[in-house]
Amino acid sequence: MSGPVNLEPAAPKPPVLLLHGLTGAPGDVQVITKHLRRSGYHVDTPMLPGHGVDEKGLLKTGWKDWLAASERDLIRLTPNGGQAFVGGLSMGAVLALALAERHPQRVKGVVCFAPTLRYDGWIIPKNAWMIPVGAYVPIVNRYRFKERPPYGIKDERLRAKMEEMLLGGALADAGLPFMPGRSLAQNLSLIRNVKRDLSKVVAPMLIVHATEDDITNIRNSEYLASAVKGPVRKLYLHDSYHLVTVDRERAKVAKATQEFFDEVTATGTIAIEAARCHFQEGCSPFAKVCGLRCRREGVKVIGVGPVAGGLDAGL
Predict the structure, then answer these.
(1) Helix axes of 250-267 and 30-38: crossing angle, nearest 10 degrees
(2) For burial by CB atoms within 10 Å, which of 88, 184, 239, 249 has the most?
């Protein structure tokens, strides 16, 4: 005789708010959005204020406008004490963190795609340490930082398509082909404010970062994981650059995001697997922090890998 049948209904799926990056567009998270919608999630991907238009429109807005709009969207999605998942790409990830800090009771979980707390990727110029200071100097913050290859994309075919859209003026699909210095200064202000309160983030978190990120080094994600208070799962990619939601491993990112949301929806948290060295060959000499952390976790570090290393949760 068969055992009792569990007739308990599945937990309702919370809505999802996904945010694009600075000078970007909702199309940057389109693959993730479509996958989640097919899995039964309601997903909102709003255009941030000042985006999707020309430079003048962007310069009329700043980080407080971007955050205020994101807060309004979160509140709209969570009436009557409900909760939502929040996430974003690059600056969008930072905005999602701000929402988790300010509205912990409304945030079910957080997903950060290539979180940018510092511009320190391999394509960033050596004098980039001057950016936080220079961004506030009038003659500097009027400067435009032009987008240049590889545009955050490792896949050459996708890169060529992105270049065509950027240079063809497809603002609503690809965003601006440059970053105004004043907008960069606004983003740095947002980052500074969010970093101060990362310990207030208690919701479960998924961090996705490429080990070869051209814009922001994977150390950003290691720092973030150590600063928040909630449980963290990490997915480190080996065949992508900064735009992890667009590049070669986008399907893997979409699947991991859905599985993370499903687990948090069902259990309220995530299972944390034993830490292990992310690289089969060991850690890179560039990753001294990661190496120390590996040893602290009791993980044997062997050999030398080609790029920055780190710990993950076994995804």
Answers:
(1) 50
(2) 88
